[in-house]
Amino acid sequence: MNILEVKDLDMSYKTIDGDVEAVKKVSFTVKEGESFGIVGESGCGKTSVAMSLLQLQADNGKITNGEIIFDGKNIVGLSESQLREVRWSGISIVFQGAMNSWNPVVKIGEQIREAMREHYPDKTKEENTKKIIELFDIVGLDSSIIDRFPHELSGGMKQRAVIALALSCDPKLIIADEPTTALDVVIQDQILKEIRKVQEVLGLSLIYISHDIAVIAEMTDNMAVMYAGSIVEMGKTDKVFSNPKHAYTKMLLESTPSIVGPKKKLRSLDGEPPSLINTDSYCSFSYRCPSPDDNCRNRNIEMELTKIDSEHYADKCCINCG
Amino acid sequence: MENTLIEVKNLEKYFEISGGLFSRNKSIVKAVDGISFDIPFGSSLGLVGQSGCGKTTTARALSLLDPKTGGDINFYNSETQMMQSIDELEGEELKKFRRNIQMIFQDPYESLNPRWNIKDIILEPLNIHNIGDLKEREEAVYEILKTVGLTPPENYMPRYPHELSGGQRQRVSIARTLIMKPKFVVCDEPTSMLDVSIRISIMDLMLNLAKDLEVSYLYITHDLAVARYMCDRIAVMFNGKIVEIAETEELLNNPIHPYTKRLISSIPIPDPSYNRETYEVNFQELDSLIADNPNSDEMIEVNPDHFVGTHDVKGLL
């Protein structure tokens, strides 16, 4: 069963220079209990996709096309009050740098209870507290943290508490947007294990967003590679890693250092992603592609995923480049 | 060692923390607590460890930005062809000496003056040290921009930092550093703010420059994979002390200290088929090493040029 189906999603931001097409024709599905990864460099639209799913994008951002079918229901165009029911109790999100989003003058437990009161107005404070202690246990926090203020916790503890907060209203899908970026490697590893454990224990679906391909390799079953607002390759994580098709995916894989295996020369990717303002129709990767032909830039090429096998898709323009 | 460029012995940097406005109690934070290493000419040493372990404090002490509170830093003096302690340097001599040591900072968005154009940013060190006349200085800027791959230089010289991408800004930082022709560059996570695709080109640039210009690096990072790519040797720092130091592949393949092992086992591997094992901290190997070498110093040599620290870290890991 698919918990989430995104179909042809377009999202753009209005700016004085023109519309920034941050998300272009993005389609993917997340099955129940699955972990789906989105990887790409900064500005590629990863976070915009995440924000669109909850429709929390900035005020100048607008979904211009497409459907987001969550649990069998299209949630694009729902009213703010209908969305409030989906947010947190249907889909919850761990933001990038979320550990800094705690209110510094309210105790951790009270901030979590606040979210729970919104969604479960009938429950008593004691019931909510009991639930929080259970969640803290899952994410590896001591129950005494409930009565602590954010400044009393370390970065890793705050991030664990954010995960507990994201779990507090029994969501079916969690979006984790670079949840470990600001953390140390040792703490990052602990948090990643915690997220995996939570996902297994509670049977949740997960969308994991990161720029770090090594983390995606370890955390996800299926993955999508985003470039300049579009998905350029998608499929089972081991297939994408063992048999990358798109030139950008190949370069991402070849530019990531590792501590195992023989030490090899890494490949760099020169240039920058294209501007996303008023883009004409051309292959968005053509300016960094190692072997572009004239067609890629001049003709009206529709970027479109093509099937490599039943569990692996890549953009048709760049399959044999690089 | 004959070809040693810089030698650090028992370097200490303590900070005094006052207990409050009216408190007489002062406590001392031992940010760097007696670390020793040396770096040969043209070689790079990686300094890895978690945030707060003293990496950056070491960097700032070594680049003479903050005065050390104890220990020795000896530097090869090319004029006398002898090692010289930096404590002996004063005034003009010290200023001249500073040219040899430069630093590249983590954040290319913060470390360049937004109101200056690229030419002025790179010219500044030449002005401070009063090197050459204006024409020579401008030529030097032109050349160094070519060296770091910002070509054609005349396009970049009049531009301002906000007009450049992160990778280009970091290239400007590197150009500013290298224009003094330093022998030793301290790099404090110079690529951690950059995107993966750009990161490698900056790392490759630094490796090539090290070869061409015979620069030695102290390369600070929390990412062992990056350190492996960049460094000949790696020192693992924990709690203000070096717990293990060895040649890069030796350290990764044959770690002894529980903290090193834990650090290595925490690094995600970009291969979904790789099964990374969880490491449970245990002190057996370290304890038996200490028992076998009852009379040794703080660092025990387990293999040629592979040293393990024996400081008490139980309860901290």
Features:
heterodimer, A: 322 residues, alpha/beta, eight-stranded mixed beta sheet, four-stranded antiparallel beta sheet, 10 helices, B: alpha/beta, Rossmann fold, 11 helices, globular
Describe what this molecule looks like in 3D.
The complex is a heterodimer of chains A (322) and B (317). Chain A has 322 residues and is an alpha/beta fold. Chain A has helices at residues 46-54, 80-86, 108-119, 125-139, 155-167, 185-202, 213-219, 237-242, 247-254, 294-298; strands at 2-15, 18-31, 35-39, 61-70, 73-74, 91-94, 173-177, 205-210, 222-227, 230-236, 305-309, 312-315. Chain A contains ten helices and twelve strands. An eight-stranded mixed sheet of chain A has the order 6-7-8-3-9-10-12-11, sandwiched between helices. The longest helix of chain A has 18 residues, at 185-202. Chain B is an alpha/beta fold and 317 residues long. In chain B, strands 6-7-8-3-9-10-12-11 form an eight-stranded mixed sheet, with helices on both faces. A four-stranded antiparallel sheet of chain B has the order 2-1-4-5. In chain B, a hairpin with a 2-residue loop joins strand 9 and strand 10 (241-247). The two termini of chain B are 34 Å apart. Chains A and B meet through helix 6, helix 7, helix 8 and helix 9 of A and helix 7, helix 8 and helix 10 of B.
The assigned structural class of chain B equals alpha/beta
Domains of chain B (count): 1
Oligomer state of the chains in this structure: heterodimer
Number of extended strands of chain A: 12
Spatial arrangement of strands, main beta sheet of chain A: 6-7-8-3-9-10-12-11
Structure summary, number of beta strands of chain B: 12
Mean pLDDT of chain B: 90
Strand content of chain A: 25-35%
Strand order of the largest sheet of chain B: 6-7-8-3-9-10-12-11
The helix content of chain B is: 25-40%
Order of helices and strands of chain B: EEEHEEHEHHHHEHEHEEHHHEE
Q: Total helix count of chain B?
A: 11
Q: How far apart are the first and last residues' alpha carbons of chain B, in Å?
A: 34 Å
How would you state the average pLDDT of chain A, rounded? 89
**What percentage of amino acids of chain B are in beta strands?**
25-35%
CATH class of chain B: Alpha Beta
Global morphology of chain B: globular
Order of helices and strands of chain A: EEEHEEHEHHHEHEHEEHHHEE
Poorly predicted segments of chain B? none
Instruction: Note the total helix count of chain A.
Output: 10
Question: Can you give the helix content of chain A as a percent range?
Answer: 25-40%
